[in-house]
Amino acid sequence: MEKGTKNKVGKTKEHDNKVNISSSLIRDIKYIPDSLEITREQPSSPPPDISKDGDRWTVDMRCGRKLSSPPAQSFVNICGGANHLFGPWSSKAANKKGPNELNFFFGIVLLISVGSRTYPIYVYVGQGRKSRRNTWWIGGRAIGQRDQQAQLAVFNQANLELVQLFTIKKNSGVNSFVLDPWFF
Length: 184
Known about the structure:
Layout: E1 15-22, E2 26-31, E3 37-38, E4 49-53, E5 56-63, H1 69-79, E6 85-86, H2 92-97, E7 104-114, E8 117-130, E9 133-139, E10 143-146, E11 149-156, E12 161-170, E13 176-181
Parallel strand pairs: 1-13
Antiparallel strand pairs: 1-5, 2-7, 3-7, 4-5, 6-9, 7-8, 8-9, 10-11, 11-12, 12-13
């Protein structure tokens, strides 16, 4: 079955759910174990497959898709509130308060290289829906969002020095984020 969420025996099926994150400064992406939160009774097969093609990383979580409010509420809370979320395919109003419903979300660690050091940045990605398309949100305590613009800050934790700032941009499609660095 190409469309729909039921297989032949009436059980909800898993889908490929791919989100892309691009930056020349990402050295690796790791899944945060046991971080998947999904709508009740939906199937899932964590961890996600993570692959790289040039500067573009693809994270593919195999799981079901059904919107509900519990994953959205948890996503907003774990990220630190709506000011720490970015849903570039969502309305201004949604970006001010966060998603009402998500299919699921999970955590990843972006290993970002600046100079000779690599910094772990913890972020969460969640899948929602707008009209008939699955769309993605990104969030975390290192992300700041206002007026549908978002930045991701990388700090040296030893001295709280800002070492890199990225503008988070949407790429073509509804599942791609680009991290555009400010400093080189």
